[in-house]
Specification:
Layout: E1 17-18, E2 23-24, H1 25-32, E3 37-38, E4 45-46, H2 52-55, H3 70-82, E5 87-94, H4 95-98, E6 113-120, E7 125-132, H5 135-138, H6 140-156, E8 160-164, H7 171-184, E9 193-194, E10 199-200, H8 220-232, H9 238-244, H10 250-263, H11 267-287, H12 291-310, H13 321-324
Parallel strand pairs: 7-8
Antiparallel strand pairs: 1-2, 3-4, 5-6, 6-7, 9-10
Helix pairs in contact: 8-9, 8-11, 9-12, 10-12
Length: about 325
């Protein structure tokens, strides 16, 4: 198999080859982000800012157009607005450049890049920012990679702030996440790897125990259970938080406002809420791992949220009344 864009060849079972597009995953993601296009003139894939003559050169290595994609640049512009004085941000930081291993052999995920690293003025790493497109939630190989990086960073004691491109750029939410992360520093380290086996500690509920070479498994069920466990502490919107990725995102704020201001004051509304709390974790546990179910839930929730907003329920930051009053 050969990538029709960069020309790299792969074995049939190579994990990072997109057979549908006949491209490697790097080129496939670039095409999705419009960083490369199929030129109507030369009928080859290259940057829209690159002329055909340069694209047809025989150089094996060429400079990237930018360290960040177009959507990452848009997020970066907003992040810089809310990053306090005394902090620096730089793109495409390799894990090995700010984390080192005290024992054990190298693993491939340790040499992955993160989208942004935030440091102090002395370049001491403080926290990571990742800009995730939908592939981070639908592709099991990418989810596996993200979970491995998350475990490494939790072990090292550096938090990760994740923004989803499908949510768009929400200024107040970006500011909120940055402020909360900075105020939480330094974070408590979580022991994810046992010394004896050089693999995630078995007592950790959401850790991955498979060897580094075994990449063909689905972690979506574990992720679903984690969303449930984290949300349960808040008595929040289980399914909505799982679908939209954050308890404080605008969509979930609409549903929380509906719950506390419309349902909770009524006796039958409180019964509905209790039934929802009882059924939702079970639905996520048994059906959350199926992408078509998640898509179906999201369509229904999007329609319901639109109706609520038409009736005046806002998506502004919200404090849970039904929780604080209990």
């Amino acid at each position: 198999m050969k990538c029709i864009s960069c020309g790299l060849t792969f074995n049939e079972d190579y994990l990072y080859y997109n057979k549908n597009k006949e491209m490697c995953w790097d080129c496939s993601k670039k095409e999705d982000a419009k960083e490369i296009i199929k030129c109507p003139k030369c009928q080859k894939y290259h940057s829209p800012n690159m002329d055909c003559k340069t694209a047809a050169s025989q150089f094996k290595y060429v400079l990237r157009y930018s360290l960040v994609s177009n959507i990452e640049m848009k997020f970066l512009e907003v992040i810089k607005q809310y990053l306090p004085d005394g902090y620096l941000i730089q793109p495409q930081a390799n894990l090995v450049s700010f984390i080192y291993k005290t024992w054990g052999g190298d693993i491939p995920e340790f040499f992955r890049n993160v989208d942004f690293i935030v440091t102090d003025l002395n370049y001491r790493p403080k926290f990571i920012i990742e800009i995730n497109d939908p592939s981070h939630y639908s592709d099991n190989k990418i989810k596996w990679r993200d979970q491995k990086i998350k475990s490494i960073c939790e072990e090292a004691g550096i938090p990760i702030v994740v923004f989803q491109t499908k949510k768009g750029i929400n200024n107040w939410y970006i500011k909120k996440c940055i402020d909360e992360t900075i105020h939480s520093l330094p974070v408590n380290r979580e022991h994810r790897y046992s010394y004896e086996k050089n693999e995630p500690a078995s007592e950790t509920k959401n850790s991955i125990s498979a060897s580094d070479k075994e990449m063909k498994f689905d972690i979506s069920n574990d992720m679903a259970e984690k969303e449930v466990s984290e949300t349960k502490k808040k008595e929040g919107c289980y399914i909505a938080t799982y679908i939209y990725g954050s308890y404080d995102c605008p969509e979930v704020c609409v549903l929380r406002s509906f719950r506390d201001n419309v349902l909770y004051p009524k006796w039958y509304g409180r019964i509905i809420i209790k039934l929802y709390y009882f059924i939702s974790p079970l639905l996520i546990k048994y059906f959350g791992k199926y992408n078509f179910v998640k898509k179906m839930w999201k369509v229904c929730l999007d329609h319901f949220i639109s109706k609520l907003q038409i009736h005046g329920i806002k998506n502004a930051p919200f404090t849970d009344k039904s929780i604080t009053e209990k």
